[in-house]
Write a structure and sequence with these properties.
Keywords: ATP-binding, Kinase, Manganese, Nucleotide-binding, Serine/threonine-protein kinase, Transferase. By secondary structure, the protein is of the alpha+beta class. Helices cover about 30% and strands about 20% of the residues. A five-stranded antiparallel sheet has the order 1-2-3-5-4. A five-stranded antiparallel sheet has the order 10-14-13-12-11.
């Protein structure tokens, strides 16, 4: 099937999605409206060109975005249904939000205070949910907020998001990011910041824009605008109520330690008016509930060198530098581990440890230590991963390439078995 470039073609993507009109595009991605050919469901498909992001930090951003979005199930957050990939493209299959960007609505004129409050309450519900999962958006703005056909707000674009694991020992994040008019003053100091507090600041700017129809901090000169942000210099229009002014002053407090928290917002008189707590089913599943390690689409993408999925099916794509080798099999994990243990006995290798579907082997007077782990990919497929953990690299390569791997050949799934050798579909999320 031809690759999708400037316009969709008539073929269904992966035999599953029929692409429609272009919804938007940026430097590295295009977003199309699409239809699931089997269910008729409308979706949005974000297509990322891997060639344009190769060798940049954006590759790690994309992996992080996938990891983040798979853990977010909330009615005010755009849902990620699945991720597909080919050798040159990555496809995010997302919830289609028919109403478009909130920015387009407010650009036509400011909202009433009641309508602004409604959208702001939904925004805070979503942002608070993210924070409770250790996720910080870091690029909240009206362009990243969508409205569905019923008028509900949906937060999108987690490409610049951070997770708690990125917090440094000083308890702060340090990567400089965001959109200039919405960045918090502490980001400008370059001394680190609290991810939750910069999201709160951006929410404050958004609330101001919804009610005023323009930005609180704005200047054609970027440095002049940054100076206003740093000093917290803004004026409220005369139509802002006193309660809204007071609430905004707490959101746009230049001192992050004094800035209102989301828990405090929920108790604020202005915010509480007409507020209804969002009830939803949290689909998060604890990993320890599985007896067998499961892999889904997101893990597969992370496993593939440069996001090239053929690495799972073709030995030539495995990493020779790190000693990491993988292949896909239709055999059961038990059968594979049994075969490895039989091999170890013949080669007089010691089984140093065994956990779940993993075996660590050692021998040759300490010159060789390597592990083989088996992960369940789908109900019928598993990934076998081998990696050197110690000893001589040459011994490991010889043992794997010339001895163990040939023993497992009958268990592996060749690329020829894929219905589309040039475009491999990842298992659904």
């Amino acid at each position: 099937m031809p690759e999708i470039e400037n316009a969709p073609n008539n073929n269904a993507l992966f035999g599953k999605y029929e692409l429609g009109r272009l919804l938007g595009c940026g430097a590295f991605a295009k977003v199309y409206h699409a239809r699931n050919v089997s269910t008729g469901q409308s979706v949005a498909i974000k297509i990322i060109n891997k060639k344009k992001i190769a060798g940049t930090s954006l590759m790690s951003n994309i992996k992080r975005e996938i990891s983040i979005m798979r853990n977010l199930s909330h009615p005010n957050i755009v849902k990620l249904y699945e991720v597909l990939a080919s050798k040159t493209k990555i496809y995010f299959v997302l919830e289609f939000v028919k109403g478009g960007e909130l920015f387009a609505k407010v650009a036509k004129g400011r909202f009433t205070e009641d309508l602004s409050r409604k959208y702001f309450q939904q925004l805070i519900s979503a942002v608070g949910f993210c924070h409770s999962r250790g996720i910080f958006h870091r690029d909240l703005k009206p362009e990243n907020l969508l409205l569905d056909e019923s008028g509900s707000l949906k937060v999108s674009d987690f490409g610049l998001s951070a997770v708690k694991e990125q917090i440094r020992p000083d308890g702060l994040l340090h990567t400089l990011c965001g959109t200039p008019a919405y960045v918090a003053p502490e980001i400008l100091t370059k001394r680190g910041y609290d991810g939750a507090m910069i999201d709160v600041w951006s929410c404050g700017v958004i609330l101001y824009v919804l009610n005023a129809g323009y930005l609180p901090f704005n200047d054609p000169n970027l440095m002049a605008m940054y100076k206003k942000i740093y000093k917290g210099e803004y004026r409220c229009p005369k139509w802002f109520s006193s309660d809204l002014r007071r609430f905004l002053s707490r959101l746009l407090d230049t001192n992050p330690e004094k800035r209102i928290t989301i828990d405090e917002m929920l108790r604020d008189p202005w915010f509480k008016k007409g507020y209804k707590e969002v009830n939803f089913y949290d689909e998060e599943v604890k990993v320890e509930e599985f007896k067998v390690t499961e892999l889904n689409a997101f893990d597969i993408i992370s496993f593939s060198s440069g996001l090239n999925l053929s690495g799972l099916f073709d030995d030539s794509c495995n990493s020779s530098d790190s000693g990491l080798q993988r292949f896909v099999s239709t055999e059961s994990p038990e059968k594979i581990v049994e075969k490895i243990e039989d091999f170890a006995k013949v080669e007089k290798l010691k089984v140093k440890s065994k956990k779940d579907w993993g075996v660590e082997l050692g021998g040759q007077s300490g010159n060789l230590v390597f592990g083989v782990d088996v992960y369940r990919l789908t109900e019928k497929l598993v990934v076998v991963e081998a990696k050197k953990r110690g000893g001589d690299t040459g011994c490991y390569k010889d043992m794997w390439k010339n001895k163990l791997r040939p023993q497992l050949n009958g268990l592996s799934l060749s690329m020829a078995m894929s219905p589309q050798p040039e475009t491999s579909q990842i298992a659904g999320c």
